[in-house]
C-alpha cells in the first residue's frame, strides 16, 4: 500500500537517478578505454624494441621498430589519430641496447556526454638489450 503523499515518488526518483547512472556508466567506459590504450601502447613499445634489437644494423632496427609498433597498434583496440615511433640506436652494438618510444594520440570524441578531452596522448618506452654473442647478418662468425 502506498500513502497518499508518496504517489509517483518512484518515477520521480527514477527520473532523477537515470542521468547519474548513465554518467557513471560512461565514466566506467572511459576508464576502461584509457587503461586499454595504455596497455596497447606499452605492448607495442615492448614488441617494437624486441624487433629492433634483433635487426642487423641501426637503420634496419629503426625500420623494424616502426613496422612492429604500427602492426601492434592496429592489432590492439586503440585507434590512433597519430602514431609516432622513435628508436634510440646510439648504443646499437652487441651488448648494447636499443630503446623505442611509442606515442599514440587516441580519440575519445565518441564519449561526448562526458566532459573529457576529445583526444589524449599515450606514450611508452621500452628498452631491449642486444645479444652480446649475436652473429653477423652474413651468418656465424
Q: Which structural traits does this protein have?
A:
single chain; 141 residues; alpha+beta; Pantoate--beta-alanine Ligase, Chain: A,domain 2; 3-stranded antiparallel beta sheet; 3 strands
Which structural class do the helices and strands define?
alpha+beta
Biggest sheet features:
3 strands, antiparallel
Q: Quick one: how many beta strands?
A: 3
- Beta-strand fraction estimate: 15-25%
Give unreliable regions as ranges. none
Write down the overall mean pLDDT.
84
Q: Please list the strands of the largest sheet in the order they lie side by side.
A: 1-2-3
Helical amount:
40-55%
Q: What is the radius of gyration computed over CA atoms, rounded to a whole number of angstroms?
A: 24 Å
Fold-level CATH name: Pantoate--beta-alanine Ligase, Chain: A,domain 2
Q: What is the CATH class?
A: Alpha Beta
Number of helices: 2
CATH architecture: 2-Layer Sandwich
